[in-house]
Structures are given as C-alpha cells and as structure tokens.
C-alpha cells in the first residue's frame, strides 16, 4: 500500500480559534477523508480539514496542541497542529491502524494494527516504535489504566481482552468476552475495565485486580431486535457514576448507573452511533452517528439530546480539546 | 482426545465467560508475517483435528474468470485454522486441517472412515448431497460432526436432514429469497425465468418460483435452455451468441427482470446485454445472490478479505467463507468450552449460547430445526456488492434472517 499521508494536507489558513471558553470537537469522517472541527459552545462547524485516507481513531495531546489521527488506508498516524489545523507530522504506526490510546503521561501511543494481530507501542517524541506485541485476531479496542501501568487490547475475532503490562510489554492476562469486542474504557479509579462486544451485544465489566468478568451488561430497547443492538464506544464520567455506551445500529446511547449496572436511559441520537467523547467540563457528551453523517450533543445532567450537527461522510471518532 | 487445560482454570469457568491467566510470553502459532514471541512450553497443547473432505474435479466455466480456484473452500478453512491458532496460543490449543479429495462421483465412505481413524472428530465437507448422505449415519454412530460448506440443496435441510450435519453454506431457497426481496424492494415485480436442463439448474429455478410466490413477484414467462453439449469456449463463439441470445429471448412476455437459473454454466453468462429487450438480468448471472462477495468490505469485512488475500494470493469467494465459518465455529466452541472434548463442543454448538461472528453485521446462529446457519445474503455483480438481504421491511417474529429460506412452520425436517 502506498504511503501518501501528507500529500492530501490542506493549509487551513483562514481558521480562527473560537472564544477562549469554548472547546473544539474534532470528528474523523471515515468515508470522505476529512476531519470536521466543531465549536462545542455554538455547536457550529468551524472548519473541515482534508486528512489522510480512511480516518478513524482520533485523540489529542494533553496540552491540546496536537491531534493524533489514524489514517488507516495510509498505514500512518497523522499529527495535526490544532492551532493551524495543518498536518505537521506522521508517526510510524504499523499497518492499518484503527484505534489507539494515549498513555496518561502523554508520551506513548498504543495502537491496534488490525491486519497484523499486533499492538504497536509508539514513542511520540522520538517517533519510533518501542515494541510490537502479538495479540489475538483483529486487534481493535485500546484502553489504558489511569496509573498507566496496564494497557488493554481487545481482539475482535479472538474475542478476548488482553491485559498488557506497560513496563514489560507482555500480556499478563487474557479475559474472554463476547463476540467482536470493540472498545475498552477504564473507570477513573482504575479498578475496572469496561469492554463492549459489538456482535455479542454486551458490555463486560472486568475487575482489574482479579482480571475476571464481574458483570455482564445487556441491553434491551422496546421495538428493536436484539441483533441491532451493537455496543461500541464506552465513556465513563470523571466522577465514575455514569457510563455511556454507543449502541451502533440501535441508534441510541445507553446511560448506565455504574453502581447498579442498570441501564437507566436510552438516548436516541443519529444512525449507527459508534464513538463518544465528553467535553472537559463533563457537561456534554458527543456521539458520532455514521450513517446519518452527524454528531449529537447530549446534556450529561439530563441525558437529553440537545442538538445534532451534520459533519462529513461516515463520522467515526471524536475527541474534544482539553481546557 | 482429552482436555489438557490445567485443573486450576476450571475455577475460572463461569456461564458466559472465563478468565485465563497466562503468565509471561505466549507462544504464537505460525501466523504468517507475525514475529514469533518466545515460546515457553509451560502448558501442554490440546490438539483439535479437523478433517476436510472434498469432491473435486477441474471445472470449466463460460468465462475464464469464473473457473473455480483450485483451493476453493480449503483456502478459507486454512485461514480459519490460522485464526483459531492465534486464539489457541492463549489457551494452549492447536488446530489442524486434514484435507482429502475424492472425485465428484466417488464413494466417500472409505475416505471418511480414514478421517475418523486418524482422529478427526469434526469434518468440513464440500461434497454432493448424495455423498453427504452416504456418510451421515456413519458420522452419527461415531460421534462425528459434519459441517456442510458446499452443498446448497434444500432437501439436505428438509426431507433428508440429519442430526450429524450442520450447514454453513446457505440453501438455494435462501439465495433465491435474498434476491427476490431486493427485486420486490426495487418494485421490479414482473419476472421471466430461463432455466437450464440439468438437475441443479431446475432446483434453483424452483427456488426462484417459490421466492416469487413468497414475496409477491410474478413469473410471467419461463423458458428452458437445453444443454445440447456444446463446447463452452470456441474461437468464434461470441459471433454466434450475439445473434442467438436475442432470438432466444424474443418471444418472452413483457417483464421487469430476466431471471437466469444456470448453475451448470451452460448459457447464463451469455444472457446479460444480449437480450431482445433491454432488461436487467439476475439469478446465476447479472445480479447474483451469494454467501460472500470477493469485494465485500462492510462490517469489518476488509480485515478478513485482507487476511485471506495475503495468505492465498486471490480473493475470497462464498465457499471459502462457508469453510472459514465452519472452522471458526469449532474454534469458538473450543474457546468457550475450554478444551477439545467433542461432546462438550457439540453441546455448546447446539446450545442457546452459541453464536458466531462472520463479518455479516450481526451474530449468526443455527436454526435449531434443521441446523442451517442463519445468515444475510450478499447481492452483487462481478465487481461489487449491490445490497445485502434481508431487505428493510421484511419482518419476522423470531429473526429477520428467517425471512430467507424455508422457515420453521414449513419445515419437513425431522432430525435423526
């Protein structure tokens, strides 16, 4: 496959940052090779930026200065300057990067390489691969514990969550979950890892001490077939009280009480909802709705959808700038 | 065959999930292009031997592009073995595929007995209906599970269904229903049907007639295309076909779509663009229903397509997917039951907990009444996927996938 990651970069010279209090949401649009920048206060699209081919996983440096974007079909991770919205660099990612997670110290990216059954560990500053860790078939979900000591990868055909020691880069535990595990999210206290299973239709809550599944959360929406409920993105509030789970073609985001594991609400958003991101003030959570080409702003206090905003084609991932 | 899973692991077994603690580096089984981790032989490998019994003879096709690959099906089975072994490396399980070929009209009983003697408890079969039935009772009496990855015959899931046979390849009625739903969704309701003179052509024609009745299509005219034994390819063949096909289709009544039932590759490829009236063609030519499409990339399909192409140097076709699915089902059963006990694995496959993910957008399960794997049907031309069925709006009280093929209330299957 050709590497032409930077060739498509467009200089976003006219871009101006919004008011200081506003956050920017950055949405990767898988189908049209763009990233949409949305002001979360006004809920207006500020800019659409051309990026590499098939942009999917997206995250941002802790200082908010750089966006990291998986350009899957270019086999690279693009580094985008948030001030200029220019692609300023690429990182070696291994083939077909889909999803990644940034270490809590902001220095390391852990990348799932779907095609090669590998997790690649990348030193961002040195732009070098520190390790390649063989995992199960079709690695996808990536999570890291708040203390940075444990990284978890899910493999979609092996159906396991692989717990990896970040100091040795070795797998310490393999936890079997349901079919096509897509995403890992640690609770803020680091005690649990929540793993969604898209085809299995469940979220497994894994105890990070015993590495056992302590709870399996299932979903039921009146009038919807069980097969259409396909959990993907998971986000947990900073106070650890609520979990949000994107349910794919069920077109809903489930709101779960983390104490009781009960689903307290299903928020209707757009079609095929996959990924989620909070604003740093935790007042809003944003969903990417692939098939309806939009994102939905959900009020975290009321769990009501506030507004949907049209972005690019097949929005995949979303990240919001830190304060 | 005994399970080599350490007894301590049993403590972690729970109903839906289990945890396996594997300290240190893991032995990665030979997966192409993957750096091998340092192998620590700290646990004994449990071997799961799968047989692959195949009727094979070189086949001709009207287009050289349609000649089946030499390793059709087997290649899919091998990719699934590699997948299972990657997973198995975390669990101390090793899978192997033992392929035996026989002639399409051969007696398969000796080959099947050989497979049993060699310790294969599971056999993926790409055989004719007659050959499958000849080994079904032998399989039952020896506790062998057969996975049919080749025969689309409805009667193997109906009058002639057997408890020892699971079917991962869809039936002709599932394929025809998948196509018919799309034509109805398009509101192209008036069909004419040209069918070949061989048994399998007529079986597919019958499936299309049934689909018309079921979904509200109307077959306004039919015509038999007799196989007079002509060579499939000659240097000046195109000249004649260009003149013959319009004449052959001239007397058909007014229609929206021309359906072709020619599994035998006698005339179907020659129908599109050569008809008397300009109408789309569907069936075994034109818009074709299938279990898989070489260009399908939806639902994570890119991943299996890339993996398959890298391993085999060609694109993945339906039979490859049916064999991949069969071998993956056994891998899933071994993972979930934590061992290789054929009884436990069979119980799991038969249980309500069983499902398999096969890049088709939803979990696939077996129809309990005839052991056919429920699955969406791809509709495509030679280059791309046009749609997948079931189509929106075709509802069902159990699973929309059961709008495809013969449903439980209609089944004549009594598993034995």
Automatic annotation (TrEMBL), chain A:
Keywords: Signal. The keyword Transport does not apply. Pfam families: Lactonase (PF10282). The keyword Signal applies. Gene3D superfamilies: YVTN repeat-like/Quinoprotein amine dehydrogenase. InterPro entries: Host-pathogen_enzymatic-act (IPR051200), Lactonase_7-beta_prop (IPR019405), N2O_reductase_N (IPR011045), PQQ_b_propeller (IPR022456), WD40/YVTN_repeat-like_dom_sf (IPR015943), YVTN_b-propeller_repeat (IPR011964). Residues 1-22 form the signal peptide. PANTHER family: DIHYDRO-HEME D1 DEHYDROGENASE (PTHR47197:SF3), PROTEIN NIRF (PTHR47197). NCBIfam families: beta_rpt_yvtn (TIGR02276), PQQ_ABC_repeats (TIGR03866). This is PQQ-dependent catabolism-associated beta-propeller protein. It comes from Mesorhizobium escarrei.
Automatic annotation (TrEMBL), chain B:
CDD domains: PBP1_ABC_transporter_LIVBP-like. Residues 1-27 form the signal peptide. The keyword Signal applies. Residues 74-226 form the Leucine-binding protein domain. It comes from the Bacteria. The keyword Signal applies. Transmembrane segments: none annotated. Coiled coil: none annotated. Keywords: Amino-acid transport, Signal, Transport. Belongs to the leucine-binding protein family. This is Peripla_BP_6 domain-containing protein.
């Amino acid at each position: 496959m050709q590497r032409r990651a930077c060739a498509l970069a467009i200089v976003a010279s006219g871009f101006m940052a919004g008011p200081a209090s506003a956050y920017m949401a950055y949405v990767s649009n898988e189908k049209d090779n763009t990233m949409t920048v949305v002001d979360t206060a006004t809920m207006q699209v500020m800019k659409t930026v051309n990026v590499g081919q098939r942009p999917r996983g997206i995250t941002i440096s802790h200082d908010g200065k750089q966006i990291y974007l998986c350009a899957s079909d270019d086999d690279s991770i693009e580094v985008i300057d948030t001030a200029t919205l220019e692609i300023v660099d690429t990182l070696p990612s291994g083939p077909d990067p889909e999803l990644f997670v940034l270490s809590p110290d902001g220095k390391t990216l852990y990348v799932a390489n779907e095609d090669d059954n590998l997790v690649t560990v990348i030193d961002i500053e040195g732009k070098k691969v520190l390790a390649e860790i063989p995992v199960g078939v079709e690695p996808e979900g990536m999570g890291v514990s708040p203390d940075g000591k444990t990284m978890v990868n899910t493999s979609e055909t092996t159906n396991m969550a692989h717990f990896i020691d970040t100091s040795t880069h070795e797998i310490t535990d393999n936890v079997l979950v349901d079919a096509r595990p897509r995403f890992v999210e640690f609770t803020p206290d680091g005690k649990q890892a929540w793993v969604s299973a898209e085809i299995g239709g469940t979220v497994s809550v894994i105890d990070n001490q015993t590495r056992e599944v302590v709870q399996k959360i299932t979903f039921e929406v009146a009038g919807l077939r069980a097969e259409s409920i396909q959990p993907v993105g998971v986000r947990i509030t900073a106070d650890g009280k609520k979990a949000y789970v994107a349910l794919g073609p069920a077109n809903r985001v489930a709101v779960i009480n983390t104490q009781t594991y009960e689903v307290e609400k299903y928020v209707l958003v757009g079609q095929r909802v996959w990924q989620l991101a909070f604003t740093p003030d935790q007042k809003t959570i944003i969903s990417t709705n692939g098939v309806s080409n939009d994102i939905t702003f959900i009020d975290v206090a009321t769990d009501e959808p506030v507004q949907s905003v049209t972005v690019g084609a097949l929005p995949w991932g979303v990240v919001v700038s830190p304060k | 065959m005994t399970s080599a899973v350490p007894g301590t692991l049993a403590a972690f077994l729970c109903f839906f999930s289990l945890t396996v603690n594997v300290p240190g580096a893991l032995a990665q089984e030979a997966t192409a292009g993957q750096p091998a981790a340092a192998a620590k032989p700290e646990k004994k490998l449990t071997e799961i031997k799968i047989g692959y019994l195949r009727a094979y003879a070189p086949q001709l096709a009207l287009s050289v592009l349609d000649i089946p690959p030499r390793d059709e099906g087997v290649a899919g089975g091998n990719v699934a073995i590699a997948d299972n072994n990657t997973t198995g490396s975390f669990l101390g399980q090793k899978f192997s595929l033992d392929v035996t070929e026989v002639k399409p009209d051969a007696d398969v009983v000796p080959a099947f007995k050989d497979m049993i003697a060699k310790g294969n408890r599971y056999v993926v079969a790409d055989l004719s209906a007659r050959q499958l039935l000849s080994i079904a009772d032998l399989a039952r009496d020896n506790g062998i599970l057969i996975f049919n990855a080749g025969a689309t015959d409805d009667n193997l899931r109906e009058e002639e269904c057997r408890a020892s046979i699971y079917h991962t390849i869809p039936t002709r009625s599932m394929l025809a229903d998948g196509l018919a739903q799309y034509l109805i969704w398009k509101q192209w309701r008036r069909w004419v049907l040209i069918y070949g003179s061989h048994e399998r052509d007529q079986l597919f024609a019958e499936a299309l007639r049934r689909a018309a009745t079921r979904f509200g299509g109307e077959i306004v005219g039919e015509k038999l295309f007799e196989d007079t034994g002509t060579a499939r390819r000659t240097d000046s063949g195109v000249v004649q076909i260009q003149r013959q096909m319009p004449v052959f289709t001239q007397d058909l009544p007014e229609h929206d779509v021309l359906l072709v039932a020619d599994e035998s590759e006698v005339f179907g490829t020659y129908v599109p663009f050569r008809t008397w009236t300009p109408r789309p063609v569907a069936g075994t030519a034109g818009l074709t229903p299938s279990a898989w499409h070489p260009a399908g990339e939806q639902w994570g399909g890119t991943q299996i397509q890339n993996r398959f192409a890298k391993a085999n140097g060609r694109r993945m076709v339906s039979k490859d997917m049916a064999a991949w699915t069969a071998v993956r089902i056994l891998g899933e059963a071994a993972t979930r039951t934590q061992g290789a006990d054929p009884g436990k694995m069979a119980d799991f496959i038969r249980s309500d907990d069983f499902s398999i993910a096969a890049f088709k957008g939803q979990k696939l399960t077996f129809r309990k009444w005839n052991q056919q794997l429920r699955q969406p049907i791809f509709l495509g031309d030679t280059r791309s996927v046009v749609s997948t069925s079931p189509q929106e709006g075709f509802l069902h009280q159990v699973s929309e996938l059961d709008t495809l093929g013969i449903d439980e209330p209609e089944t004549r299957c009594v598993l034995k």
